[in-house]
Specification:
Layout lengths: L2 H8 L3 E7 L4 E9 L5 E8 L4 H22 L4 E8 L7 H14 L4 E5 L5 H8 L16 H20 L8 E5 L3 H13 L2 E5 L3 H11 L2 E2 L12 E4 L8 H4 L6 E2 L11 H8 L3 E2 L2 H4 L2 H10 L4 H9 L1 H15 L3 H17 L7
Parallel strand pairs: 3-4, 3-5, 6-7, 6-9, 7-8, 9-10, 10-11
Antiparallel strand pairs: 1-2, 2-4
Amino acid sequence: MDIFEQLAAQGHEQVAFWSEPEVGYRGIIAIHDTSLGPALGGIRFWDYPTEGEALTDVLRLAEGMSYKAAIAGLDLGGGKSVIIGDPRTRRRELILRAHGRLIESLGGRYIAAEDVGTTVNDMEFVRMETEWVTGLRDRSGDPSPVTAYGTYHGMRACAHVRYGEPALAGRHVAVQGVGNVGSHLCTLLAEEGARLTITDLDGDRAKRVAQEIGATTVDPDEIYSVQADIFAPCALGAVVNDRTLELLQVDIVAGAANNQLAAPHHGEALQRKGILYAPDYVINAGGMINVYGELHEWSAVRARRKAAEIFETLLEVFESAENEGVAPAEAAGRLAKDRILQVRHLRRSWV
């Protein structure tokens, strides 16, 4: 499939490529849909094996951001950007400023924030080249705590549906990835009294978090086989796939990672196994809510209150799925696409 066929298949409006070989920079920005407003999405700095894999990832992530904004009731479109390379580079400022110039070239159609491999400090480098960046140190800052807070309330909604009450005290949660979001989520769960088994590709980080909250650690490949109530993917995507589906021994999959399903049919496969799945772009919308609040000068309290509404949003998704006889992932997609289509008839795409 060529690039234009790929864009048409997923409904993307625009993809921008930028290269500055002298500083070792290669970047891509994908804009999926701007019917609701300018495209918002994080900057992912990752050492992709191939440029094709980077393109596939940024397209999937941008599409997810469109649906995330729509179902959360935010007037934003969906976008995402990737920087191809080793995030441990010493040329970080030069590379991020080059990415800022790519963002600036789009004239506000895409607004950036942090993501995997980038930090609040990195956004300051981007800001040197463009105003179209959020999650800044002197404004809303790191969105991770709000992402975790929304995910926590999404878990409570899942527990309410599966167990008849939203309480997570005493529930066993297997958390994959304890970076910025995952570690905050673990703290919230531990404070309520959940029992935690955690893992991370950085074994030292997993041990440190485990000591802080009283969790048990396992090797990364073992997390799928942990017999628990909830599996919480909080790292990279495509972790629910043909191989891992055979290993899962949980009632619920609910976590903060993007693109948790390797393919759409894996949502149906989870349902056939009797596992309740919280669609990722619904449950992890807290970070987007946080930066949306920054754009509209919300208080931190208001942003957290909006993130807590993910509880009700997920209940609506689960009710719709039951009424329509479909998996929650499909029900969420329908709800999000309906809002985008309704608004698209009222105004032009954001330019």
